């Protein structure tokens, strides 16, 4: 709780008061409820043993797990298990993660496919698969869409069950599952120029990333070059520094390595990529800053503060800082103003050319959801680019 209080800039006592005022419960009670609900989902949807469920949900012991369920549900946890569960537990844990409809799956899967790194990510048959690393453990996940159930299905192959909540949280961030999309779309539709785009693509999400450091490195690799070229550079970085995933935890034959960690890139004497010296220097500076400041990719009170902190890193300018804020920090109001695709999309709906200054003024009406407005502009900008 102290860490959470520090991140949001309040004291522990004040945080407890805020929880009680707005949620009617203490932070400890909220955390306990989340553990219980996650355990209940694991019991319903998987063949995991009760011991495994207790570990994955963060209970200190099986006894405490059983006591909690008896207290809340007045019956032991195993009685909540659904009958006739299908699937082989050796193939991984399979969970359904719900979202608020509508959800533009086609756009988000196309976004990920265009940027998929060889050996780390695969997109096939509208599924997204990737390798993962948390706390030195390696595995992989496969994500597919269940439109009728307003959910995505996550198949998780990972050796440490206690890290399942962290994996689920990252998947939710990557696919922007927690967005209140009706509120966001309604706000953006107040602008007549943007309303048409929102009606064309209801439920358009702002893709996040599996790992904030990975997204930041990829943003630097993508400075002033095409998406394809940036993906190739990222693939070369993985070849040089990515660690191999054990075969029993590869959910797909084309997945082999995890993206390089902060430690690997800070310890490398030379990054070894065919890039301008200034950009190579930025990669090193980013890795060193991330190593020195573990909370680098946590949001600050205001988007301007978050961007200013990122711009202090050597070689990180406005576009890169805003892009990192959007995808890695998950700032809903991030807005990479000078992006060419974004400007192209804005010019398309504006009926002519538009300057960054003019766009910034117009975008004031889109706050605090400019990141979602940017997604709509990128979509129409890409469409206009292909048409020319």
Provide key terms for this protein.
4 domains; Endonuclease III, domain 1; TATA-Binding Protein; globular; 5 strands; 388 residues; alpha+beta
Explain what the structure shows.
- With 388 residues, the chain is an alpha+beta fold.
- It folds into four domains: 79 residues, Arc Repressor Mutant, subunit A; 90 residues, TATA-Binding Protein (2-Layer Sandwich), CATH 3.30.310; 116 residues, Hypothetical protein, domain 2 (Endonuclease III, domain 1); 48 residues, no CATH class.
- The protein is 51% helix and 9% strand.
- The chain has 18 helices and five strands.
- The protein has a five-stranded antiparallel β-sheet with strand order 1-5-4-3-2.
- α14 crosses α15.
- The longest helix has 19 residues.
- The relative contact order is 0.09.
- About 1% of the residues have low confidence.
List the helices and strands and how they pair.
Elements lengths: L1 H7 L3 H12 L3 H19 L4 H7 L5 H12 L19 E6 L6 H10 L6 E4 L2 E8 L2 E10 L4 E7 L6 H11 L6 H8 L3 H9 L11 H10 L5 H15 L20 H6 L9 H16 L10 H9 L6 H10 L12 H11 L5 H8 L6 H18 L1
Antiparallel strand pairs: 1-5, 2-3, 3-4, 4-5
């Amino acid at each position: 709780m102290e860490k959470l209080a520090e991140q949001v800039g309040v004291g522990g006592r004040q945080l407890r008061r805020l929880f009680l005022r707005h949620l009617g419960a203490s932070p400890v009670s909220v955390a306990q409820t989340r553990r219980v609900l996650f355990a209940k989902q694991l019991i319903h949807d998987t063949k995991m043993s009760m011991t495994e469920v207790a570990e994955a949900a963060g209970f200190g012991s099986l006894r405490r797990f059983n006591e909690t369920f008896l207290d809340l549900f007045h019956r032991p946890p195993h009685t909540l298990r659904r009958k006739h569960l299908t699937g082989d537990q050796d193939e991984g844990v399979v969970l359904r993660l719900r979202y608020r409809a509508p959800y533009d799956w086609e756009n988000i899967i196309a976004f990920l496919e265009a940027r998929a790194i060889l050996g780390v990510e695969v997109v096939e048959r509208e599924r997204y698969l990737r390798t993962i690393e948390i706390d030195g453990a390696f595995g992989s996940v496969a994500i597919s869409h269940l439109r009728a159930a307003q959910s995505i299905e996550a198949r998780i192959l990972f050796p440490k069950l206690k890290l399942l909540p962290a994996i689920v949280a990252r998947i939710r961030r990557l696919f922007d599952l927690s967005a209140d999309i009706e509120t966001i779309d309604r706000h953006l539709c107040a602008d007549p120029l943007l309303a048409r785009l929102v009606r064309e693509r209801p439920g358009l999400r702002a893709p996040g990333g599996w790992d904030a450091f990975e997204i930041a490195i990829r943003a630097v690799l993508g400075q002033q070059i095409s998406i394809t070229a940036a993906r190739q550079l990222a693939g070369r970085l993985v070849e040089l520094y990515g660690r191999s995933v054990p075969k029993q935890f590869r959910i797909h034959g084309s997945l082999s390595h995890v993206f390089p960690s902060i430690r690997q890139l800070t310890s490398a004497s030379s990054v070894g990529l065919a890039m301008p010296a200034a950009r190579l220097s930025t990669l090193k500076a980013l890795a060193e800053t991330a190593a020195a400041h573990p909370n680098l990719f946590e949001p600050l009170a205001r988007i301007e503060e978050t961007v200013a902190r990122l711009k202090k890193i050597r070689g990180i300018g406005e576009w890169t800082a805003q892009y990192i804020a959007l995808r890695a920090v998950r700032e809903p109001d991030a807005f990479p103003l000078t992006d060419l695709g974004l400007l192209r999309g804005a010019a398309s709906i504006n009926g002519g050319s538009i300057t960054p200054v003019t766009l910034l003024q117009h975008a004031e009406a889109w706050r605090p959801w400019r990141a979602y407005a940017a997604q709509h502009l990128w979509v129409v900008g890409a469409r206009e680019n292909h048409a020319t």
